[in-house]
Known about the structure:
Thiol Ester Dehydrase, Chain A
Amino acid sequence: MTAEALNAFMAAGFAKWDRTGITIEEAAHRFVRLKMVTGDRSLRPGGTVSGPAMFMLADTALYAAVLASVGPKALAVTVNMSINFLRKPEPRDLIAECRLLKLGRRLAVGDVVIHSEGEDEPVAQATGTYAIPAD
Amino acid sequence: MTAEALNAFMAAGFAKWDRTGITIEEAAHRFVRLKMVTGDRSLRPGGTVSGPAMFMLADTALYAAVLASVGPKALAVTVNMSINFLRKPEPRDLIAECRLLKLGRRLAVGDVVIHSEGEDEPVAQATGTYAIPAD
Amino acid sequence: MTAEALNAFMAAGFAKWDRTGITIEEAAHRFVRLKMVTGDRSLRPGGTVSGPAMFMLADTALYAAVLASVGPKALAVTVNMSINFLRKPEPRDLIAECRLLKLGRRLAVGDVVIHSEGEDEPVAQATGTYAIPAD
Amino acid sequence: MTAEALNAFMAAGFAKWDRTGITIEEAAHRFVRLKMVTGDRSLRPGGTVSGPAMFMLADTALYAAVLASVGPKALAVTVNMSINFLRKPEPRDLIAECRLLKLGRRLAVGDVVIHSEGEDEPVAQATGTYAIPAD
């Protein structure tokens, strides 16, 4: 699936997709890049993006990377996700890049790195496993 | 901190605490139990609670368990969290119980189990590490 | 499978099972308890059991819990494992208890807690996912 | 620390370092590459390297990356490690590369990718957190 198709698929499936602030900017086989516009919706006191907002971004990135690689399977589900919070993010948009480390018939495993836009050091890293339903 | 003090602390610190649907129902040394009322806010298509909503509940439970044990330290931060999604939750309120496996001077580690209210089998399990700031 | 059958299955399948120091002491549906005799084999400088030795014990516990519940499937494999090292273990035998949080047709998820024998506070906790082969 | 200094430090600190089959081949600030010669020591039935042997390699890589960056602190300890087993490794030497995602005063977080020598697709991926003792 292309980035355009993925954005349309998300908007059709999730009533509140617009409110997440997330856009899929690039999609390829086993790779996606997403941007999350950070509004006050996800900010903690002190102006930083909350951990759960970063988790949602990482989970969405992994879901999008699976869909980009195997096509629109709405029922792919997260089996588990392990996330490391590395440093306080700037109050700035976040970029998430996900690469699939494995793409099996039933399980996909991906690595997600999240940066504040324009910064080198990552603010969070996650790895997760998705179960892919049989057709 | 008591459950009552924790609820007041959360409401004072997080502008949108009310919207999370979370209440701390019980708090003791190294233990808390939380309830999350599930509204349409966190529901995925199909009527189930989303993964990120369960992550938020697990993260809040661990934060509350740390505060219950060491007092109001707003700056305690999640170092990492690993969450397993075990089965599709019913469209019903969720109960999270968190026990601290370790409470050191600088790091606390806790285990969180999430159930749909009235069900025995857990819908999610998480373990996480919190960094506790020096005074 | 009973504890006795599990010990025999392990000894037959792993040429160096004896050298691990591990015995399955109790087995039930979705539960096992193992003991690891700690010799100098697995000790770090300072006399404590090494992290990799505790990982091996946790991984074996999860494998045994799966076999105890679904029968002898040698080809069940670890998908992932997340382990927390909580405190320095005493130079003493270790007890691992594993409970399956989920036992699906294809995936099992278990929680493992490791104690030094005779101590209350756990030295390590792990959660892991196993893939169960189709027959 | 250089690769040479790291190998000497490991050999001096761990009586059975030689038996692990591990050599640190390259070390830089926040990066190391290790090789593990796989003998029958770590092979499972079927001739593949065992999960615990890959865990030991990942844990050693993270420890070496911390030492390479902060100097010889024998007492740095693993706080947690999350490992994904991606595919059956060939019965061949393994290469592990570790990059530190964060190097704080007290905590370091690293990402480890393990390949069979000469293969592109990784056989395992791990992320872990190390606690760095105060001087």
